[in-house]
Amino acid sequence: MEQSPSFKTSELKNKTYTTMPESASTVALNTAPEDDAEPALDPELLDQELQLVSSLAKLQKLEEMIHQLRTLLPERLLEPLALIINLKAATAVSVPNSPQALYQRLSQSASDGVREVETFKSLWRGREMKAVWERVDTLIYENAGQLLQSNGMWQEDYDKILEEIAKHDAARKEKQQRAKEEEERSQLQSAEGGWRALVEEYSQTGFPGMRVLPPRRDSSFVVLLPKVGLSFKVNAIGTGQEDVPEFNVTSKSSSAEPASKVESTVLGCLNARPRKWDLNYLFGMILSYSNLFQTTCAKCGKMQDQAANLPTLRRLNPTTPQPEQLPTFEAYHATCV
Fold it and tell me: Where would one find the signal peptide in this protein (predicted)?
């Protein structure tokens, strides 16, 4: 994906937040909505606490998987032979009616067992668990080989605690995002000239592959993508929240010319975007189509899917754009999402 060019007007940038309400040992007991006045929390400390709870949840999962693996041999792996070895064995599986059927059952049982072992190994050797094992080794060294022994029982279900933390954290992030958007709307409303001044500046700024025409008297403006032969009319609709309009995109083509399948798909994606009031977001998204016929899918890496469709869907690139840059987007086929 090409880097988007810069412009002079200060951009409303996307930011990510990491928040956690309280310690992991108490969050599961306090899931009711909190008052608006919440203490300021150190994001780095909260991230460490979330990592800790996640690691404990994985340790519990590993222990559960170990107990399950202990039943793999010989019980579950050789279960297809149970009725053949012992006709009185209590099992819900019927006796195979042929050697081929028995072979298929044994093969499936072996494949399932191998998959189960590989899943365990993948979790055990994962990046997060590697940090846990390094921490354990450090504690063993610092305590001369002596570690506090547990009673063999987990006092908490850390998977449930992690789920509660994630729910609460998501609610906090949504609340922060709403407040951030309200602030950005207010800044756009108070800016001299409003959205029209921003469009005027875009029209004077060079964007490779995209041309913006000055706004018209009917509260609309035109955006051209000459390289791909697409042109859009952007209409400011209503006043919206905080007296900031939302923007709808239509084809600038003559009404006598039906929109192509590609153009219709692009328009649908543009009008399904969030932040419909955010012109920076809209221009960044339109710019992502300037190389439509050379762009590959971010998931499959191909330009066309099996039905010869182009990757016309767009998702915001998680990388925060640099100051004075438009947000960037990743391309996807509809069949890849």
Answer: none
